[in-house]
Design goal:
By secondary structure, the protein is of the alpha/beta class. The chain has one domain: 3-Layer(aba) Sandwich (Rossmann fold). The protein has seven helices and ten strands. The longest helix is centred in the last third of the chain and has 18 residues.
Length: 225
């Protein structure tokens, strides 16, 4: 079976004034469906850049990204947008919740943006609220939740469209150790019970230990797995 995520000689260069800064230097990766993979490395090694390229949030200078066998480089903006809404779920360090929306409304936002009927997803919403342990917080707004609860809302939002892949950028970077491990337990359960492919960027060895494979980046290159 072909990889669900594949990169081929992926390069990314940013221009800072008159200086070109090479962030990624020929990254070749293959991630199989159902894997839980951690990308690690020191600050500036290109971890988050790689994740954003995989998710179509940024474009490579050269090289290819394939998701489910499809090259992102040949997709139109609309096709990429559909891919991000339906195939990929994103979890960020700072949650990115809408302050004036409650838990339910934040979770259902991708459905609204995709032009689907909210009513058709009510049963899915109930399942996800139970999965992330927030059934009793559904009417609360983000400011009424702890950091861990806000991240659970973000994970629920990433799951609502039933994506094949979850991309997580430092998902516990803003949390204390106990709360962070609770989030990692949840991600591992989602991986094991729902078969979601999860790719996380992390500085935390404790978080990386939850994954099946660790990819180490240094100076824009894969150094070891």
């Amino acid at each position: 079976m072909p990889p669900i995520i594949e990169t081929d000689q992926l390069y990314k260069t940013y221009k800072l004034g008159t200086v070109n800064v090479e962030v990624l230097k020929g990254i070749d990766l293959a991630i199989q469906e159902g894997e839980f993979v951690s990308i690690m490395g020191p600050s500036g090694s290109g971890k988050s850049t790689l994740l954003y390229l995989i998710g179509g949030l940024d474009k490579p200078t050269s090289g290819q990204v394939k998701v489910k066998g499809k090259k992102l480089s040949v997709m139109t903006d609309q096709e990429e947008s559909i891919l991000r809404r339906r195939t990929l779920g994103f979890v960020f360090q700072f949650y990115n919740l809408i302050p004036n929306l409650n838990v339910e409304e934040n979770i259902m936002l991708p459905i609204l943006l995709d032009g689907k009927r909210l009513k058709a997803y009510r049963h899915r919403l109930e399942e996800i609220l139970e999965t992330v342990g927030l059934a009793d917080r559904r009417r609360h707004t983000p400011q009424e939740l702890s950091g861990g609860q806000q991240q659970r809302v973000a994970i629920a939002r990433a799951l609502i469209n039933q994506p094949d892949i979850i991309l997580a950028d430092e998902p516990i970077g803003n949390l204390d150790t106990k709360t962070g491990m609770g989030i990692m337990d949840l991600l591992r359960r989602i991986n094991q019970e729902q078969g979601k492919t999860i790719v996380q960027v992390t500085h935390s060895e404790e978080a990386a230990a939850y994954s099946q494979r660790i990819i180490n980046l240094r100076d824009g290159k894969v150094r070891e797995e």
